[in-house]
Design brief:
Layout: E1 8-11, H1 17-29, E2 35-40, H2 49-57, E3 62-66, H3 72-86, E4 93-96, H4 114-145, E5 162-166, H5 176-179, H6 186-206, E6 212-217, H7 234-245, E7 256-258
Parallel strand pairs: 1-2, 1-4, 2-3, 4-5, 5-6, 6-7
Helix pairs in contact: 1-7, 3-4, 4-6
Length: 266
């Protein structure tokens, strides 16, 4: 269970689907002085109503932050807003969950244009890149202020400081021949493959600061993007991912795992 997780946690794309369920379960199960910074593009809009209700239900434990992952100024403003609130305590977990898919599924080659490719890449790859880069001082603050598990041979964990990038099974280049005919989404597939490389690069770069960086495939989940025929509920997906996150260590840095903790080939 995720009771081992705590501290300051930032979740992007938190107004619906997996992001909203991450905020809900973290608010419900995290230990001690935990605070969740729930980010979305339009906190006052109708699509954020469920998030606002959740914030009222867990009064004092959730702060909604305006964040558009495709807008560098918005990313900087969101990071500053979080920094102003957490101060020296630092950021323990950054979950890069926000993502878009264009054009509408199945996003066939002949239906996909340059604009689709660029917009998806900007949100799904450049956004996490900028947010991770700008959050580095906050993550370092958490890593430096939290004891490591070196007695067990580990310096990194989600209890200390970590970045979790929500990727996808269909990002796997090795598995593409098996999955392409089912989901031939060019922009989404290629953006998530790029996110995997970003995960590997950040893992190498940030391990010198004892910051864990890992990517997750949440499963085929019943969301607006996944569709109602998907076999996995948001509740089951998130519950399993949080359980796996609570046990991550040095060996998991720069890897792609599924929601049950199984490794997925690049």
């Amino acid at each position: 269970m995720s009771e081992k997780l705590g501290g300051n946690i930032l979740v992007t794309g938190s107004n619906r689907g997996i992001g909203l369920e991450l905020v809900r379960q973290l608010a419900l199960t995290t230990r001690g002085e935990c605070h969740i910074y729930a980010c979305c593009r339009d906190p006052e809009g109708t699509r954020a109503e469920a998030l606002r209700d959740l914030t009222a239900q867990y009064s004092g434990k959730i702060t909604i932050i305006k964040l558009d992952m495709a807008d560098e100024e918005s990313v900087a403003a969101a990071v500053q807003a979080v920094s102003d609130k957490i101060g020296a305590a630092g950021l323990n977990i950054l979950i890069n969950n926000a993502a878009i898919n264009k054009p509408a599924a199945p996003a066939l080659l002949l239906m996909t244009g340059k604009k689709d490719m660029m917009e998806v890449y900007e949100t799904n790859v450049v956004g996490p890149f900028l947010l991770s880069k700008m959050c580095l001082p906050l993550l370092k603050g958490a890593a430096e202020g939290h004891p490591s598990d070196e007695s067990m041979g580990n310096k990194m964990s989600c209890r200390r400081a970590a970045i979790i990038n929500i990727s996808s099974f269909i990002s796997s280049i090795e598995k593409c021949p098996e999955t392409f005919s089912m989901v031939p989404m060019y922009p989404y597939r290629t953006s998530k493959a790029a996110l995997n490389m970003l995960t590997r690069c950040l893992a190498e770069d940030f391990k010198t600061h004892n910051i864990l960086v890992t990517a997750f495939h949440p499963g085929w989940v019943r969301t607006d993007m996944g569709g109602q025929e998907a076999p996995l509920s948001t509740q089951d997906s998130v519950r399993s991912m949080l359980n796996v996150m609570s046990s991550l260590n040095d060996q998991n840095g720069g890897t792609l795992l599924d929601w049950r903790g199984n490794s997925i080939p690049w």
